[in-house]
Amino acid sequence: xNMPTHTKPWIQGAVVGAIALAIIGFSWGGWVTGGTAAKDxxxxxxxxxxxALAPICVERFRSQPDAIVKADALLKTSTWERSSLIxxxxxxxxxxxxxxxxxxxxxxxxxxxxxxxxx
Length: 119
Description:
The protein is mainly α. The chain has helices spanning 7-27, 34-62, 67-76, 82-89, 102-114.
């Protein structure tokens, strides 16, 4: 088969260009695979759910009659045990759910520690 003399350099240029395009696109262009996009969307949706439910947990905690006493007890608890205290109290268990979400409990404890109720 006879090929024109310029065909081989064109093919080589196209292959090198495609490889360079892929490298630049995935490293600097922000391209991602479908699997990475799916993981990112699941993580983003979970973060959004936690951000929406944490204030509900805070309000439920603050609406109890002895909220100031319990908030003081929460602040006296070590930082890494606060979320488990919130989980055990049941405020991180949302209606319709049987289990508390540990991420909601952690976010709730962080909000409560940052803005304790005033007496």
